[in-house]
Amino acid sequence: MDFHLVAAQLLNGVALGAILALVALGLTIVFGLLGFVNFAHGAIFTAGAYGGWVIYTKTNSFVLGVVAALATAFVLGIVIERLLIRSYYNRPPEDQILVTFGLAIVIVELIRAIFTGQTQTFNTPSWGNGVVNVAGIFYPQYRLEVIGVVAVTLLAIYLLIYKTRIGLIVRAGIDDPLVVNLLGINVKRTFMFVFAMGAALAGLAGVFDSPLLAVNPDMGTDVLVQSFVVIVIGGVGSFGGAIVGGLIAGEIISLATAFIPDYSQALLYVAMALVLILRPQGLFGVVGRS
Amino acid sequence: MAILEARAITKRYGGLVAVDGVSLTVEPHTITALIGPNGAGKTTFFRMLAGEIPPTSGTIAFKGTNITAFDVTRTAQLGIAKSYQISQFFPKLTVRENLTIPALAARRGKFRIDIFRRLERVDGLDALVDRTLAQVGLTERAHDRADDLSYGEKRRLEIGLALATEPELLLLDEPAAGMSANETADTVALIKTLRDHVTIVIVEHDMDVIFGLADRILVLQDGKMIAEGTPAEIRADQRVQDAYLGGIE
Amino acid sequence: MIKRPWQLAHPRTAFALMAVFLIIFPTLMSLIGGDVTLASRVLILAMFGLGVDLIFGFTGLLSFGQAAFYGTGGFVAGYLMLQHIVPNTLLALAIGTVAAALCGVVIGALSLRQIGVYFAMLTLAFGELFFFLENSPLRAFTGGESGLPGVPRATIPLGFTTIDCTSATGTYAFIAVIYFLGYLLMRRVIASPFGRILRAILENPERAAASGHDTLRYKLVAFTIAAAYAGMAGGLLGIFQGYMPPDAFGIDQSGEIIVVTVIGGAGTLIGPLVGAFVWIYLQHALQNFALISGVWKLILGLIFVALITGFRRGIVGGATALLRARRKRVA
Predict the structure, then answer these.
(1) Whole-number Å distance between alpha carbons of A35 and C117
(2) Cα(first)–Cα(last) distance of chain C, in Å?
(3) pLDDT tens digits for C23-48?
(4) B216 - beta bridge partners?
(5) In this complex, do C214 and B110 lie within 8 Å of one another by their Cβ atoms?
(6) Sign, CA torsion C315/C321/C323/C329
(7) Which DSSP helix (H) or strand (E) runs through B109?
(8) ipTM of this complex prediction, to 2 decimal places
(9) Do B71 and C208 touch (CB under 8 A)?
(10) Which of A51, A128, B103, C137 would be A142's cystine partner, CB 3.0–4.6 Å?
């Protein structure tokens, strides 16, 4: 067994897993806290990627591109939530799935209409070019940086949700909206903020992933489905679950690609089906959350 | 032989004990009432009888068969039907169509792939539905949508849905909940007509209903049974007075 | 007296109407700028949709993996025909349908214990699983990303002669007859006691179970029937195109059939037919207008979102509501 190959694939798995964890976190926050299933999450990922691409190609600054991606996704999240999602919180899950699925089609087709279906190149930023010597293998620098940036982002989100007053309000608002309302805090706005934050995470992942993936209107579909796998494996509504699930999913894909390429994608869905059948709450989830 | 025997039924949710060692024996063709303050565990106990939730410990036997682990479908097929406190019907179907559903289960068992059969060919289906409609006084409303019914009519439909399974034991969960005095009197009259055909266990808060109907009363408090007996005995029982009846005559 | 959309006409009238419609459909299509091949496409999708309507419109099961059965039926039937293992068209289609139904039983048994979102995600996972299995490990049989070219057109050997359905019109006739039979069958299923119980499961699954019905098994049978219909539709696709495309599997196809069913009207049986017509015709009609040719999906997506939000019953549902209101006024 080629050590270098395995090591490279393991690292690939972490890089891929980092992106997936980021996407999944956005999804699981909304699903776990608001009880809402967002099938448009992949489309928002795509929208963020395009937002980032537009600014990046204009200004040649990756940082500005990231900001653009965040802004695009965040604003999109707010718009969707206010116009549509808001009236769906109490509707049956099938309706939530259908409307967000429809929204995904609308967003993706809008992007396709504006930017054409052509794949756009998103060059690796200059500081990401080159390779780094990691344990004897030469590994693309950018991927390591993605891992790093994602880790920092995850930490920031964690602190935001669990260590700040705003995060406390968000968590309380989800548990008992009436009480929070009585305390004078606007629950509607809180929900909107949570939704938009989930969207922003998707957009962020979109721009980070753009140098690795091809930027095209359909780039979000696979990501959406894969992030479902992640939150199922990790457990819906679990912060840690999104991260661990992301890493597991990333490793499954990477290692399988190296050793049993024919089954690399299929294996992921086998894993998801197994978890749903044997332990529906996932690794860290809690049974009974809607 | 007793039609229902529940022995030492306990239900624990983590550290919380909702029902603690409650036993109940029900004789056929009687009306037994379960009363107690809110949180006494009546609803939980009832749900276990119907097969909705499993007891943590204890056994339930129906006509000699151990039904402790049975789910709602099996208990319904065996002959136990429950009418819910909050009406659970099929909103967009007509009253007749609503009653057809449990009737189909009574006539056809719990599963049959009769995808080519015509509805009219199901033996005795129409007769059962007509009978049930008459029993609950909804014959005139048979072709109206269920969610167009008045509140009282919905409660009658609720009882009808249980009756249409042709049960031997009928569990009524607060059948008079939310009713006016007139509607309550009608409900009591309805239940009285049923006692010849089915055995009834009823949970109620309305004392007039209870004392007018029950042959035996079981009083629960904090998950435990604190008294059991005839209405006269219960009325005279000091523990019950203290726990529940307060100053009611 | 409440009349459901499919009850507005006496069954025999409905069947006669459907038969007449199917006969004039290709002509209708030509009149509005389409042709008989477009009509065939609509019917294939409508056939697929009959099954989806059964499980979603009548039972409330939202499955995002129906393409798994569509593809399975298509590739099994297509492979058998083109490799001359089963040259008899009808037999090959039947085998493909059975294969799809078997997959339906297995996936249904594994998935139907879950409800709501978990059920949707599980069916999605299985749909994707089938797609990736078809794409890579099984590509010797399925042609992988290229698909299966060379699926022969339909012929029906009757011993003394062979009915040739190889022309475009012949193919349409073949598909139309099968769709008609499928529609007949489905109406029967819906009207049966079995069908009633499915509707009860849609309205209040807990009450249906508490009434004494084994709801899990009813759902499983319905799911299997839907898989069979999907499989037959897939087989017809292969014959129609002379080619089995790999994207017959996959989430886009699964999503498309749901959109089509909802736009046409779920729970109406002819909803998928109407929805398929709108979907396919719009795509065809707009392609000549360069400016908005890419936008047909966007338009339909917006319509879809609007329908879910405000008006669940789709085109057919809306039409029947209008009809009912008119009748009330006249009566």
Answers:
(1) 10
(2) 13
(3) 999 999 888 888 899 999 999 999 99
(4) B32
(5) yes
(6) negative
(7) none
(8) 0.90
(9) no
(10) A128
